[in-house]
Amino acid sequence: MITPKVYTVSQLNSRIAGMIETDPELQMIFIEGELSNLRPNAQSGHLYFSLKDSKGVVRAVMFSRNVKNLRFRPEDGMKVILRAQVTVYEPMGQYQLKVEDMQPDGVGVLALRLEQLKKKLEAEGLFDPSHKKEIPAMPRVVGVITSPTGAALRDILDIIRRRYPVVDIVLAPVLVQGDGAPAQLVKAVNTFSEHMAADVVIIGRGGGSMEDLWAFNDEELARAIYHCRVPVISAVGHETDVTICDFVSDLRAPTPSAAAELAVPNGAELMASAYAMMSKASDAILADITLHEDHIEKLKRIIDAHSPKIMYDRMVEQLDAMSLRAMNAASHQYQLTLAASQELFSKVEALNPIAVLNRGYARITGADADILSVDDVEVGDPLKIIVKDGSFHAVVTEK
To answer: Do the beta carbons of residue 205 and residue 228 sit within 8 Å?
Structure first.
């Protein structure tokens, strides 16, 4: 008769642990189920949880070194596929899964990561419309962040040059997919922001798979765009493609070509609008001038009716008339005075001895006085005889 071995609890747990941990089939298994009771340890970084299906539950742990490699954030209720090792936690006599890798089941890893990052950034306010900057109506410089060899750049350049050729374009050439792409995209955004090197920036690329566009779902890039001081237009892929870059940018364009149209105005339309505005302004100015001319003419008539110039002109006319009358009176008085003077002159002239001489008479003077009678002279007296054109001397010879 075999005597049964008596185990202590710890011996039994150790025995079972040895059996499980030496079973090669349990050293690496793949197991699917639903996550529940997630309990991340903030200090150690380990993740504790349960995996369940409709009929059972198993405990699991994922150590921090493996948690760091997760490309998504586990949540309760999420269906996953685990790569794990079956172990026994001997102090409690419980077997558990030591998880080395975890992948979503039924939802693509990238799609899940995108959705989780979207929820995170949205909760932080990075998509808030109130934070979005206005796109300038007429930029002087447009920045473009894209591959220098892609079709997206050619489309952007062609459309901008056709629509608004006066704008300058600054290209930041970057990788748009692959491991180095996110860092280059972040650096380009930060450079435009730091130096204010453009009035608006277009960031994007042509279409592709989710994996091809994944660089535009980078969290650091999203934060760089959010803090960028220059307005950013996202133009990633086709209209149906959606990235984090689209949500955080100030404006989303369905394609790179559409982004170019949103970044600059239509030059031809601007010219037509400018001419229309000039014509309208010219008509308004002419109408305003006409109105003011009518008003000025009315004021002029009022001023003329009450102007002191009219009184002045009337006074001038009166003064002119008075002056004319005074001149006429003076002239008349002059004529009267002249006539009287001439009459007096004639009388004086008649008494002028020279005038008598002019008529053939002579003036005879003696030594002391004029000779007026024969009694005034004696024979032998010298005489001076004055005629109209001179004088001569004579002597009285007889009496």
So the answer is: no
Query: Token pair of 92, please?
Result: 């409690």
261: nearest Cα among 346, 172, 367, 142: 142
Q: Tens digits of per-residue pLDDT, 153-195? A: 999 999 999 999 999 999 999 999 999 999 999 999 999 999 9
Distance between CA atoms of residues 203 and 225, nearest Å: 10
Q: Where are the alpha helices (DSSP H) in the chain?
A: 9-21, 64-67, 109-124, 151-163, 181-195, 219-227, 244-248, 256-263, 267-306, 308-351, 353-358
Q: What is the pLDDT of residue 218?
A: 95
Q: Work out the widest C-alpha separation in the chain, in whole angstroms.
A: 238
CB atoms within 10 A of CB 5: 7
CA dist., res. 56 & res. 199, Å (int): 60
* Alpha-carbon span 137 to 164, nearest angstrom: 11
**DSSP code for 87:** E
Question: Which residue, chain included where needed, has tokens 């149209």?
Answer: 261
